[in-house]
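Suppose a colleague, Dr. K., hands you the sequence of a protein chain of 200 amino acids and asks what its three-dimensional shape might be. Before reaching for any lab equipment, you can write down a predicted structure in token form. Begin with the sequence itself:
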Amino acid sequence: MLGKKLVTAQKRGETRALCLGLGMVACSMMMYFFIGITIVPFYTKSVWTTETVCKVLRATIEDKDPCLNSQGSEDEGATHYPCLQVWVNLTASGQEVMLYQTEDTLERNPKCSYVPGNSENPKEVQARIETIASNFKKYQTFPCYYDPGGTQANVILSRIYPPRGLLFAFLWPTLMFTGGCLIIILVKISQYVSVLSAWQ
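The predicted structure, expressed as tokens, is then:
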């Protein structure tokens, strides 16, 4: 009687462990799919893939012609902010090009090097832009990214999804997938050993 109870408890434990392993594998596959349709397209679409050194030529704040924060539209919700324009000397080619913060900055407003958030305080935005401009004037040489194919004649300060960030995004689903597979393998080994012991 005790033996039957132990076998029943063992089978229940194996079933739960197997369900846990399958659930982890299923969740990791969903995470892979989510990353594949959200992060990977942004990474592959970026043409600024090569790192080089940029030297600041000038950093100016255009107060007379403020930029719009909603992709240049004249909507009522659009907020105005001073336009920071940073021009740098590209070490790789020696060209004078405009610097943008990220790939998204160029899409949101190609006239400005920095685009603040939509809901930020105008005074805080003004102070931040002045601080950024002074930092560029202070630290004139820094790493940046350019397009080696020449389709974009400008550079960006940082990529939204660098290779290291993409690897980090794939790390957690990979660990979950590996853990789920290990659980399934251990359950199958346990079942095989149990059957082998019963046969002997």
